[in-house]
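Structure request: Inositol monophosphatase, Amycolatopsis regifaucium.
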Amino acid sequence: MTDHAALLSVATEAVAKATGIIRSMTTFSVAAKGDRDMVTDVDLAVEDAVREFLARETPEIGILGEERGHEGDKDLWWALDPVDGTANFARGIPLCGVSLGLVDGSKSTVAAISLPFLDVTYTAAEGQGAYVGEERLEASKATKLSDAIVSIGDFAVGAGAEVKNRVRMALLAELGGRVQRVRFLGSAAIDLAWVAHGKLDASVILANQPWDTMAGVLLVREAGGVVVDTDGGEHTVRSAATIAVGAGLRDDLVAAIARVSG
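Returned structure:
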């Protein structure tokens, strides 16, 4: 049986180490890694340091990092985004985070997200609740979209982006006319952590990169929210999208997405 408490301690220490590196590297270089996509040497330094730490502390567990790829066990593995929100970070916008989730099969069971420039750390373990520091998190109890603040994930880049972004534009129009406010924060880790924290009522990310989402998905679920795919089915590591929402808005939000996705 997996010792979630012990692994949560490892994850929390790992993101604390990452946060220290991010705060200490006051100068850095930025390089292109694709169409409108970038990486900094901070991303690489953080991923390398966290990989080394996790390999030492949990050698039996694999790891998937955004920058260095997948190594080790395919059923139990860490999903790491060393700097989620690199575009924000590179511009000095403090909305970025370190996201580390433990994926067991198709779902995450341990999560730690640190927001280095907001000085907060979010944690969760399966069946044990989600926390920011010592405060237990509770997702939104809103029941009307007109009362909801909803974040939308970044628009697509790279191959096929034009077609994918037609849906995003339609979604923006749909939600913009119905919800209280729409927000673009530029970090999936923050989107999901803030749904868990009740700062956002929902987050619609029309993608599902495990390093971006798996830690935050567990936070939302442990805070009493729900996370689904575009068809309303339960979210897994293989889902096409990541839709996190307070339970009272689930049906209305899924219906709104269905209207623009069909």
